[in-house]
Amino acid sequence: MVTRSRVLSAGSYLPARIVTNDELAKTIDTNDEWIRQRTGIRQRHIAAEGELTSDLAVAASHQALENAGLKGSDVDCIILGTCTPDHTFPATATRVQHVLGAKGFAMDVGAVCSGFVFALAAADNFIRLGQVKNALVIGAETFSRILDWKDRGTCVLFGDGAGAVVLQASEGKGNKSDQGILSTHLFSDGAHYERLYVDGGPSATQTTGHVKMDGREVFRHAVVNLAAAIDVAIAANNINADEVDWLVPHQANRRIIDSMGHRLKLPEERAVITVDRHANTSAASIPLALAEAVNDGRIKRGQLVLMEAMGGGFTWGSALVRW
Ligand code: UT7
What we know:
Elements: E1 2-13, E2 17-20, H1 21-25, H2 32-39, E3 43-46, H3 53-68, E4 77-81, H4 92-100, E5 105-109, H5 115-128, E6 134-142, H6 152-155, E7 160-172, E8 180-188, E9 196-198, E10 211-213, H7 215-236, E11 246-249, H8 254-263, H9 275-278, H10 285-295, E12 304-311, E13 315-322
Helix pairs in contact: 3-4, 7-8
């Protein structure tokens, strides 16, 4: 027998305000056709003034806990993937912990768009070591706060939101038929630090800064790195690509998602797509997509779900879960 992290539930939250491509085209030199063709994005949600990353995270967590039938006080570990914390410190996760009345410990993980996969891997390892029973894993971002709204090469690509899952320690046989997280694989390569970064920070500039991205280079590396992250998950679990029921990818660009779907020879409808409505919400994108497909009944118990993400650093990784 081995300890596995079962995924009990998922929840999400999107700010009320929707900004369409046409609305952006009123203030910067862009157009709906370019954005849709290059990225698949039609609109994004933007947090209201005074609505913080922790607020988004708490709302998503409430839904996830309710769906799991648990209370905040049942949670003994919160790991929040974010690169847009409320404050430089303390960890935004500690505010979430306080509002939910959770126990144990809470921390943030900074891996940008890979933040949810990194947070999930960390929580899974705490659970498998026997240190945690019920973990809340969150991805939450107010990315709109670090965008340069005059830079059409980046500001059209991102949005705000949050998603969360509840993990619970359970027993498994130690093979691929187990329910729960079967594997996580994490990677980073700091040689590419400046291809996707924020040009501010407490130590460097004492300012918050704005997102800078060499889009073409990020795209090129994303296709290669995500393919490798998928391959290693499949090989490590001794499964065939066609056993994967659902791809729940990071939602940066529809073209990248489609190329990963083709790699898995997955029917198009088996990739969960939210990039059209949410844009790239960084660490929130996978749990937002997961919550949508779980809560509308597409993803069913027993099915195999493959997640993959790539972000600044570069960081990238994958997680294979039997739902
Ligand atoms: O979440 C982390 C991971 N991030 C990603 O995976 C993002 C990866 N990169 C991408 O998704 C794509 O590279 C972009 C969507 C960012 C850009 O698409 P692209 O096909 O690589 O376009 P490009 O950057 O090569 O730009 C093509 C043209 C340029 O004009 P010229 O130089 O060919 O005349 C840009 O100036 O499109 C122009 N352009 C725009 N035009 C209208 C750039 N942004 C815009 C815009 N509206 N918003």
